[in-house]
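Quick one: structure tokens for this chain, please?
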Amino acid sequence: MQEFRLWCDFIERDFLENDFLKLINKGAICGATSNPSLFCEAITKSAFYQDEIAKLKGKKAKEIYETLALKDILQASSALMPLYEKDPNNGYISLEIDPFLEDDATKSIDEAKRLFKTLNRPNVMIKVPASESALEVISTLTKASIPVNVTLVFSPKIAGEIAQILAKEAQKRAVISVFVSRFDKEIDPLVPKNLQAQSGIINATECYYQISQHANKLTSTLFASTGVKSNALAKDYYIKALCFKNSINTAPLEALNAYLLDPNTEYQTPLKSAEIEAFKKELKTHNIDLENTAQKLLKEGLIAFKQSFEKLLSSF
């Protein structure tokens, strides 16, 4: 299934030097993503950064973070480069801009350009959160031929607006990261069992349709936040359910490894628009509106990434 790709949603020094290479070499993944929460988890809990942190003592916290993070990104980029050189649709690693800049388009653009220039790798994507300033940032970066990964996309409406810009202006590869499982974590406690574990997939499918309406060959839907939040679900539940053409799934290791034991042999057929609308109508009988939920989850996601970044910087 060449039109469905798997990426790995994890980054950590020891992993990059060992299991990451194994996943690439056996053809299991063709890209990877990072975010402030993943870096916070890796750097504060792994022993593999401590010697380097000690050597950087006295430098500003953000400078220490960038020294560590950019080293990891470059390592991932090098490992993925053969895939990129064979097919420039593959082989990307993503790095997110400082989450505290999300309200300032000018500073976000400057930071994105600086990071991309510093890394100087064609297979690095700059991650931009889908905040209010995102459309201006995305437009400027794509015109500058910088590959972008628009992250924290929850709303189909926003997904469509982003896809429109990328369809007109993307010069390089771009992905729109649609977050999935957080919908079910939010909504499932409020609805009967027959409606549970469906909101994330249905909302993601609607985002996929919106993106597909405007997409060009350079732009893909990337399903993110695809680790399950409930023990009642199979670890690879969201990967299997969203195995659509021209899509990517970036998954945590637990979900990824479960899927690789029993991968899909054919694409899933997305739900039809009428089925999506019927489900949304049923949710409204329980006073739940998916668009309102999307806005709430975006706000929470922006805050969570800031908190992780702040925790990481304060650890130095």
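The chain has 14 helices and eight strands.
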